[in-house]
Amino acid sequence: xxxxxxxxxxxxxxxxxxxxxxxxxxxxxxxxxxxxxxxxxxxxxxxxxxxxxxxxxxxxxxxxxxxxxxxxxxxxxxxxxxxxxxxxxxxxxxxxxxxxxxxxxxxxxxxxxxxxxxxxxxxxxxxxxxxxxxxxxxxxxxxxxxxxxxxxxxxxxxxxxxxxxxxxxxxxxxxxx
Length: 177
Prior knowledge:
Strand content: 25-35%
CATH topology of the largest domain: Jelly Rolls
Number of helices: 3
Largest sheet: 7 strands, mixed
Shape: globular
CATH architecture of the largest domain: Sandwich
Number of strands: 9
Structural class: alpha+beta
Order of helices and strands: HEEHEEEEEEHE
Radius of gyration: 24 Å
Number of domains: 2
CATH superfamily of the largest domain: Protein of unknown function DUF192
Helix content: 25-40%
CATH class of the largest domain: Mainly Beta
């Protein structure tokens, strides 16, 4: 009987330790990982965006765009291929952790776009105009800037030409949310 009692106390203590460890670990995980993921899936006021991405208001030469923010590897790899169409006041802003020559392609795209690379000062360093989606049965061309970039803005085809977006154009946006 004494052995059973000791085993029961030992088991209860072990369960308490395990439960305590779970309580100590899980709140940390739920506060860090899901909270980060949630910030990427909701607007600043906490409402989900239509696309499930955070959004930012961008001004280019006086023209305002609402852009989805692609800041994770998964979001950046999907890019605008998640959309069937894009209007003139919409875009996608790719945010990278380091400046370099970020390459893009038009794989799985459904419509043509302009690609605008920006440096850390949010100054345009290169523009590719009216790029067509890759054909399913041929290799997909890649596009990259001659200079390093920290951000890439994708817009509807013709946007850069219509609004005179060229190298040196300053783009305004804030990611401080």
